[in-house]
Every structure is written in C-alpha cells, then in structure tokens.
Write a structure and sequence with these properties.
The complex is a heterodimer.
Chain A: H1 2-8, H2 11-33, H3 44-67, H4 77-96, H5 109-113, H6 129-153, H7 158-177, E1 189-190, E2 194-195, E3 198-199, H8 203-229, H9 231-241, H10 243-248, H11 253-279, E4 281-282, H12 289-302, H13 308-327, H14 332-346, H15 350-355, H16 362-382
Helix pairs in contact in A: 2-8, 2-13, 3-8, 3-11, 3-12, 3-13, 4-6, 4-11, 6-11, 8-9, 8-11, 12-13, 12-14
Chain B: H1 2-11, E1 28-39, E2 42-53, E3 57-61, H2 68-75, E4 83-88, E5 92-93, H3 99-105, E6 107-110, H4 122-129, H5 136-141, H6 146-158, H7 174-187, E7 192-196, H8 204-217, E8 222-226, H9 230-236, E9 239-244, E10 247-252, H10 254-259, H11 261-268
Parallel strand pairs in B: 3-8, 3-9, 6-7, 7-8
Antiparallel strand pairs in B: 1-2, 1-4, 4-5, 9-10
Helix pairs in contact in B: 4-7, 6-7
Classes of the chains: A mainly alpha, B alpha/beta.
Chain lengths: ~375, ~270
C-alpha cells in the first residue's frame, strides 16, 4: 500500500532511483575491483565527481520540494547547503589535530595564524562526529525557522521572498569572509586529513562517501514522496495554486510554508555536509548568490514539481558544466544563461516534461484560457 | 500585563471553542455593529450595521464601491476595521481571530472569481475542505474516515458534480467551478455562508440551478449573497439589504426596496 503510493505510482522516480542504485553498485565495483589498466575502470576522480553530483541532486530535490510544490522560490538555498558544509568542515578541521602546519593540538591552522590563543566557544563539541552531524541539521533548520517565521508571518511572498533570500545568502557570504568570524575567512576550511578515522583521500573512503550520498538521496526522495503524496502534499499544492482559498478552508498557511521550508533547508544542509568531505574544501564562495540561482536553473531544466526532475536536472546541468568548463571555460556562463532562456520558452516542464505524456493537452489549456477571458468579459457586463 | 497581551498577539490567539453550541438565543447569528474601514482616507465602510438571523437567506445589493466585498473581508478576518465590532453568536468576537480560525469556526466564504484548487480533482478539492484537524503534523498522516467519505458523497450530490468526482477541477466549466466552491464551503459544516456574486458569468440554466442550490441551503445555514443580477436576486430573495457608500441604505423585501425612492436615486442617478 505504502510502496504503491510512494514508489510504484511514480514511474519517472522509479527509473531515476533505479539508475542511482545501479550506479551505486557499478561504481564501487569498477573503481575497486577492476584494475586501472582496464577500460572499464572508473577513476577515483570520477567517483568523487559523481558523489558531488549526488549531493547537488539532493540539494535540487530540496529546492523542488518548496518551489515546485509550494511555489516558494528560494534564491538562498545555497546558504543552507553551505552552513551544513561548514558544520561538517568544522568537524573535519578538529580531526586534523596536531598534524596541521603549525602543529597546534587544538587550534586549526588559521587560528594559530591569527594569533588566537584558545578555541572560540562555537567550535566546542565539533570534535565529536555525532555533535557535528546534529549541527548539520540544527543550524540550517534553525536559520530557516527564524527566517521563515518572520517572512511567512508577515505574508512575504513571490518575488519579494526571493529577493530577501538572496540578501540572506549575500549577508552570510560577507560575514563568512571576515577573518574575525572564526571560520577561516576567505580561505575557508581545508586541508582535511581524515573522517571517522579513515584517510579522506583514500579510494575506500571516497567510495563510502559516494555510497552515503546515494543512500541519503534515496532516503530524502522517499521522504519527499511521502510528504507530497499525503494530504499535507495536496494542501501544499493548494497553497501554491490558491493561497487565499486554502486559508479560507481553515488551514494556517504560514505554518505549512514554514515547516516545509525548514525541512527543505535541512535537506540542503545534509547535502552540504556530504559535499564538503568529497571536494575537500568549504569557503565563503559557496554562499555566493550566483550558486543559489544556478541551482534553481538545475531544477527548472530537469522539470519542477516532479521531484525526480530535480535529480535529472542536477545531473545534466552539472555534467554539461564539467564538459563545458574543460573545453571552453569562458563561455559556460553564456551557455547557462541560454539554457535558462530555452527552458523557460520551450520546455516549461523541463527535460522530464519531454518524456511525460501530460494529462492536460495544450489544446485543453488554450480552451480554458479563452473561457476565462470570456468569463471576465461576462462579469464586466453584469457589473 | 502589557507584555503578556503583546506576547499573546504575537503568538496568535488560541482557537476558540467553536465546538460548543453557538449562543443564538436571540435568533441572530451574526452581529455586525458600527463598522468603519478606511483605505488611505477613502471610507469603504461607514458605520455599517447588519444583523443576520439564523437560517436566513439574505441578499445584499448595492452599486459598485458600496463596500460589499469589504464587508465580507471584515467578517472573514481578511481586513481589520478601524471601529466597530463583529460577533458570531453572542460570545465569539470575530475581530480577535485570524482567517483560518474563522473558517474553521463555521463561516465559509465564496469568492467573486471561482477559486478552487485547479491541479486537484473534484474529490480532492472537497477532501481538503473537509472539517478535520488542520494542523500541519496531523495532515501528514491523516486519511479520510468513512463518515467523511460519506459527507463528500453527500455534498457531491448536492452540488450536482457526483459524476465528475475524478475530473481535474481545472477542467470544469465556469458554473461547475462555482458549485464546487460552494461544495467546499459545505464540507466545513458552516453556520454562515458568505457568497460573493455566485452567478456572474453563468448561463441562464446554470443561474437557475444555483438559485435552487442556495435556496435549499438556507434554513440549515445562514446564507448571505452579494449579487448584481437583479433578476437573480428577485428569484431567491426574502430580505434584501441595500448598501450605499459603506452603510446600509435600506432593508426590506425586494418590492419594498425597489420602490424606495432613495434606492431609485442611488441606482438611476438624479
């Protein structure tokens, strides 16, 4: 019953999750068991790249949940991703211990460099993995809660909400650039040595991180499916389509938006935490407003309001970016811009819209549009 | 004390006990008294007084800008008035409550333009409107129980959409959308229905059906209809209130109202 509701009724999702699962079996085998000389071997670089894409897919999923289903366009989701990443980065920094350049047993290198004598209070506890993981969830969640509570309560919607989320991520960018913040300033956190006692650059660790990202993506996907197929999911879609009506049906719209926003921010935070050990660095650049916009482009390209479309979009655009930037780095931004224009004009349902036979044919839509026009005319006449 | 009241306002009022039987011993269900609302100096409502009896069907007419929609906004909590009071029964002060609380409590509102959830089916539209626990965490796991399913079937018959239950609401005709919206109000088991221009843009046949529906609802519910179409008002009205420049110009039967020289002046000009 539940599997039917969550998975079997969702063919696109089944295909995408199936591909992820196949990759999760094949990639470790091809990387660890097949010798490097064979053409079937997958390099560790490729494993890390794919692992990174899985984190991006998780991030895109988080955005699709609130944008595609609830119509809240957040242009600041990169901030939650980066905060999750910083929490993980702080744990990894504490793991370095005395192996740093300056050999201080407690303080990370950048603090020694700044002549700090003791660990700031907010760095306490990050030597424990469970605490850092808790913070990966709590910090983005808390920020989203406070921010969302203020914004939704004042009924800030639409483009105004998008703009203040941009401001949020930009403000955090500026704050994290400052050395006095205690997060490594411009350089961010890097030089990680190991995670849970395993060397971070080893093949086995890379594969484990790749698998962890894959599992997390699948779990998050199923959780999102659970939400969107429940009655709550229908209410969320109703808020997107007719907010006032939903309110007059007796639903407290603000609470729904708030909890969905918090959940989405937590997913973004987890994605960031999985991303950082794979790329080996987290710096304030992750807060850049451009990142958050780019990630909206992934979702739009894949097809919003489908969940699996977000995964498809994250993979396609980022794969395209990898290819593009290795051949002609200067033109990538133009290509990205062009992509957004093309998707908006030609593919309103994104890439997955190409394969999906839509229930509503375009002709039906035009008829409704014409009808509603005549309705307004009729209304005017009676008035 | 001041801090507490401030905090209460910030956190929102607790839901009032709507489940308790409404105190309508005087026969009146809705008291609107001395309401004034201004928008940037324009007085949309000016010392408006209106009393609605239990089970009554009341039509409200008036020229454009008379304040009909603003009045509905005040009753449903969308607009807070500058002065005056609105009581539901004799106990519940509606001005202290927010929109969703008023809706949960039994005042349903249909908008001028049909607003339904177009992406969902007819059945799902009614499902969402069902009177049930509407807090976030409940809706994550809630399923319809048999009593609620029965109620949906009942309402589907009442609004004449039983055969279209699985159709996308967005694909309905204009008239059907209006009926679906009325059905959604009924799912909330309202005591009072506020219906804004139900027949605007409807065909003659649809208008007749709507008239029948609204008349059948009166009695069990108090129904307030705002409408421009005089023929329609005449066909359903028992008591008519005429609004003009934000206050009540006159009240009475359709014949009394139509022969009132003040009304003629307002409608036909000097």
């Amino acid at each position: 019953m539940l599997t039917q509701r969550l998975l079997l009724s969702d063919r696109g999702g089944m295909i995408v999750l199936g591909l992820v699962l196949i990759a999760m079996v094949l990639v470790p085998v091809c990387n660890l068991l097949i010798p490097e000389t064979s053409s079937l071997h997958i390099s560790t670089f490729m494993v890390t790249l794919l692992g990174k894409f899985l984190c991006y897919a998780l991030l895109a999923l988080a955005v699709d949940l609130i944008w595609g289903y609830c119509g809240i366009l957040s242009l600041g989701h990169g901030a939650f991703f980066a905060l999750g990443g910083y929490a993980m980065g702080m744990y990894l920094m504490r793991q370095i211990g005395p192996r740093g350049q300056y050999g201080d047993p407690l303080l990370p290198d950048f603090m020694v460099f700044l002549n700090w004598s003791e660990l700031p209070w907010y760095w306490q506890g990050f030597d424990m993995f469970w605490f850092a993981m808790l913070m990966v969830i709590v910090i983005p969640g808390l920020l989203a809660f406070v921010f969302g509570w203020l914004a939704f309560r004042s009924r800030v919607t639409g483009v105004y909400f998008s703009i203040i989320t941009q401001a949020l991520t930009y403000a955090l960018l500026l704050a994290f650039f400052r050395n006095e913040m205690g997060f490594g300033g411009n350089n961010g956190l890097t030089d990680f040595k190991d995670i849970l006692g395993f060397p971070i650059a080893a093949d086995g660790t890379r594969i484990s991180l790749f698998l962890a990202s894959g599992f997390m993506l699948i779990i998050a996907y199923i959780a999102c499916r659970y939400i969107v197929t429940s009655r709550m999911g229908k209410i969320i879609v109703s808020i997107r389509d007719a907010e006032t009506r939903t309110r007059f049906c007796g639903y407290k719209v603000e609470s729904y938006k708030l909890w969905l926003f918090v959940f989405s921010a937590v997913l973004a935070g987890i994605a960031g935490a999985l991303y950082v050990p794979q790329v080996g660095i987290i710096n304030p650049g992750e807060f850049s407003p451009l990142n958050s916009i780019e990630l909206v482009v992934w979702v739009a390209t894949g097809g919003r309001g489908t969940l699996f479309g977000a995964i498809v979009g994250a993979f396609t655009v980022n794969y395209g970016k990898t290819i593009f930037t290795s051949y002609s780095p200067e033109t990538w931004l133009f290509a990205l811009g062009a992509l957004f224009v093309i998707v908006t004009l030609i593919l309103p349902n994104g890439l997955v819209g190409l394969f999906k036979r839509n229930k509503k044919t375009p002709t039906e839509n035009t008829v409704t549009a014409v009808e509603s026009k005549t309705e307004t005319a009729a209304t005017k006449e009676t008035v | 004390m001041n801090i507490f009241s401030q905090a209460r306002r910030t956190l929102g009022q607790p839901d009032p006990n709507f489940g308790a039987p409404l105190d309508t011993t005087k026969g009146t269900i809705l008291y609107v008294e001395g309401i004034s609302v201004s928008f940037d100096g324009f007085r949309a409502l000016n010392n408006l007084n209106l009393y609605i009896n239990e089970g009554e069907l009341r039509c409200i007419i008036g020229p454009n800008g008379a304040g009909k929609t603003t009045m509905m906004d005040v009753i449903t909590g969308k607009t807070k008035p500058d002065e005056g009071s609105v009581y539901f029964g004799q106990q519940i002060n509606l001005l202290e409550l927010s929109e969703h609380q008023i809706a949960r409590g039994g005042i349903g509102r249909k908008f001028q333009k049909p607003t339904i959830f177009e992406a969902l089916s007819v059945y799902e539209n009614l499902e969402l409107a069902t009177a049930a626990d509407k807090r976030v965490w409940w809706t994550l796991t809630q399923q319809l129980n048999s009593a609620q399913k029965y109620r949906i079937d009942e309402v589907l018959l009442q609004i004449g959409l039983a055969e279209l239950r699985h159709k996308d609401a967005g694909a309905l005709s204009h008239g059907q959308k209006q009926w679906l919206e009325i059905g959604m109000l009924l799912m909330q088991n309202p005591r009072v229905l506020l219906v804004d221009e139900p027949v605007a843009g409807m065909t003659g046949e649809e208008t007749e059906k709507t008239a029948e529906l609204l008349v059948s609802l009166a009695g069990d519910h108090s129904v307030i209809v705002v409408e421009h179409d005089m023929k329609f008002v005449r066909s359903i009205a028992r008591k008519v209130t005429v609004l003009h420049q934000g206050s009540v110009l006159t009240e009475g039967t359709m014949d009394q109202v139509q022969n009132d020289p003040k009304v003629i002046e307002v409608y036909l000009g000097e």
